[in-house]
Specification:
The chain is α+β, with helices and mostly antiparallel strands. The protein has one domain (9-76): 2-Layer Sandwich (Alpha-Beta Plaits), CATH 3.30.70.100. It has helices at residues 21-33, 59-67, and strands at residues 9-16, 37-42, 48-53, 73-76. The radius of gyration is 12 Å and the shape is elongated. Bound molecules: copper (II) ion. Copper (II) ion binds at residues 19-20, 22-23.
């Protein structure tokens, strides 16, 4: 079995374009489905999103995944 050392990282994003509470769930669920993502917490009102992931996950990957879900704009905070 391959063992890779991973480091837990917290990335804070700002997501624009959420228009209802189900956007929050859709984004959280999709984030958690990304390999290496441990947790994703979206604040619907402010758009502030905290993603806990290992060092194999990049900001660009998160941005791409989230923006593919709908009319969202993801920025690094
Ligand atoms: Cu929505």
């Amino acid at each position: 079995m391959k063992t890779t050392k991973t480091i837990a990282i917290k990335t804070t994003l700002t997501i624009k374009g959420m228009h209802c509470i189900s956007c929050k769930s859709v984004i959280e669920d999709a984030c958690k489905d990304i390999a290496g993502v441990k947790a994703c917490m979206v604040d619907f009102k402010s758009g502030k999103t905290v993603v806990e992931h290992d060092n194999n996950v990049t900001f660009d990957q998160l941005k791409k995944e989230i923006e593919s879900l709908g009319q969202y704009e993801v920025k690094k905070q």
